Amino acid sequence: MQNYDLIIRNGQIVTKDSIFQGEIAVKDGKIVEVSTNTISGNTKEEIDANGLHIMPGVIDTHVHFNEPGRDHWEGLETGSKSLAAGGATAFFDMPLNSTPPVINKKTLEAKSKLGEEKAIVNPYYWGGLVPQNINDLKDLHENGVIGFKAFMSPSGIEDFDNADDETLYKGMTEIASFGSILAVHAESTVICAQLQEEKIQAGKTSARDFVESRPIISEIEAVRRVISYAEATGCKLHVVHASSKKVTDLINDAKKRGVDASVETCAHYLSLTVKDLEEKGGLAKCAPPLRDQEEVDGLWDALANDEIDIIASDHSPAPKEMKTVTDNYFEGWGGISGAQSTLNVLLTEGYHKRNFPLEKIVQVTATNPAKRFGLEGKGALETGYDADIILVDLNETFELQEEDLFYRHQHSPYVGKTFKGNVKTTIVNGKTVFHHGEIINS
Ligand SMILES: [Zn+2]
């Protein structure tokens, strides 16, 4: 007779390529059996998943928490609770929003120490690539960063400079030498700065003006340039938050030429438009900005064709007063609070509205992130994998309220939106951390 810690019974198990009725047994934080039959044995705990779908936890490759140093903004505890409530079991934290930013071993250690204390889901960290730290990159890699992040336009954080062409070229040469990966925020500094100045000079500061100051061509120009560096240096490349199929097409063309590249988009580019920016003000401000409906539809077409590797939240929150826009959309923090809602958006806008298969949702939220960034034992519901498991009710319908949010600052452009499909339980390394609307304290 086997002894287990947990058996999840009677659920619909969703993998990257199939859905079947089955059961999962967990011991010591690992999945030890997945079966279409009844699993027998002694177990400390049993969950009846009748009527629910069992999926691998979301791996959110793109969040901005602000610890250490910027403690009045989103933190590791509140941020990771929000992720758990949204069905994420791991996150990759961006390097720039802590003070100091993660650009050397010392600052990485300071952050990961806090992550160990405070995060309730699995934490991973990006290191920064900035003009000043080419000589620190290898050290960061050896100390466990998931990869590196560079901005091709100003980051909005004073002590995290954007990477000029020389930094990109030298940095990517260095990163390639030890086989790591560079993620880029790809917008053209030249185009955005000039257009912004023209708009402001002319007193044109509406939502539409802000969007027009950061056009898709600015992304296209930057992506083309960074792809050329990837080709020249052999550095693995990951383009974050592409806002248009015109951008994802470039990465797919590069892949066909043999460039080791991948592309991510975010839930907000799949569900919100310039109209939302006009209506919700700063809460929906981000960079690249929200686009029009045809771009949203284009991204869904790209997803249907397997042309987008990863969907992340780019959760980039700020205190609410910094998100208030009156009539000047060039003012106020750019960044959307969304970490809790990624799966809700994909189920509502994708699975229910566009027949986007659950298996593909698993691919872009779990399988592909684990594979691209080399997370062993993550991203699948298979024997020997870590028990990072979520239970989802596909048909639960609810209108998101501010008080549902676990963020430090309870705002999001999704507040007031009706979602269909919700996370009931989140299990991280075999332990239930979220159940029926509540965080479960260990
Ligand atoms: Zn970001």
CATH C-level name of the largest domain: Alpha Beta
SSE order, one letter for each helix or strand: EEEEEEHEHEHEHEHHHEHEHHEHHEEEE
Secondary-structure arrangement, i.e. CATH architecture of the largest domain = Alpha-Beta Barrel
**What's the end-to-end separation, in Å?**
28 Å
Any idea what the shape is?
globular
Reported for the largest beta sheet, the result is: 9 strands, mixed
Q: Helix proportion of residues, in percent?
A: 25-40%
How many helical elements?
12
Bound molecules: zinc ion
Domain unit count = 2
Query: How many β-strand runs?
Result: 17
GO molecular function, one term: allantoinase activity
Organism: Oceanobacillus luteolus
Catalytic activity: (S)-allantoin + H2O = allantoate + H(+)
Function: Catalyzes the conversion of allantoin (5-ureidohydantoin) to allantoic acid by hydrolytic cleavage of the five-member hydantoin ring.
Question: Could you characterize what this model shows?
Answer:
Homotetramer. Residues 54-433 form the Amidohydrolase-related domain. It catalyses: (S)-allantoin + H2O = allantoate + H(+). The chain has 442 residues and is α/β, with parallel strands linked by helices. The chain is 32% helix and 25% strand. The chain has two domains: 3-54 and 384-439, Urease, subunit C, domain 1, CATH 2.30.40; 57-372, Metal-dependent hydrolases (TIM Barrel, Alpha-Beta Barrel), CATH 3.20.20.140. The chain contains twelve helices and 17 strands. Strands 1, 2, 3, 4, 5, 14, 15, 16 and 17 form a nine-stranded mixed β-sheet that branches. It has an eight-stranded parallel β-sheet with strand order 6-7-8-9-10-11-12-13. β9 (147-151), α4 (165-177) and β10 (181-185) form a beta-alpha-beta unit. α5 (189-201) packs antiparallel against α6. The protein is globular, with a radius of gyration of 21 Å. Zinc ion (ZN) is lined by residues 62, 64, 94, 314, 316. Zinc ion binds next to loops.
